[in-house]
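Exercise 7.
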Amino acid sequence: MTDPITLLILWAVIGYLLGSIPTGVIVARAMGLGDLRQIGSGNIGATNVLRTGNKQAAALTLIGDAAKGAAAVLLARQFATPDAVQIAALGAMVGHCFPVWLGFRGGKGVATFLGIMLALMPLAGLAACAIWALTAKLGKISSLAALLAAGWTPVVLVMLGRGDLFPLAVGLAVLVYGRHWGNISRLRAGTEPRIGASKSPVNGG
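Solution. The predicted structure, written as tokens, is:
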């Protein structure tokens, strides 16, 4: 029988490799948009893809980045233990933010975070999406919407009786906040561009 620790490491690697798939880069190249890392901010998330003016490509990137997080969770749930599910989820998030294929320079994790949450606990995932959408609509600042969605998700999980997922959600939120450090600095300075501005902040995965 395989050692439990070895299995957890295996699922961490599987999650990481899934998360490392550079959806935005692949979509941009496939649709003739060039090297996404040379466009706008150079970020590989859907927000930067949108800077190309191709909404279809941005939507595909958003869906793909969310899907790889969800896939890590669903695969581990099907074939492994609950602990492995959480490890795979964390691995997918780390993989997206620090993909080995791109020199560990990845996205900001929001779409992958939402995909993970939707697969782990659909109500919590929907709540995170709702927080993002409402904040983006009212505040017109996408990074603020992402930060609030990630920050409130651990609380929502506890309210829904899934305190067992609280540590994971906090860890994922820490990654989101860390990847948004520049956005946070601009938010504090009042210089973060709003949605629709020519230099909108990158905060998607």
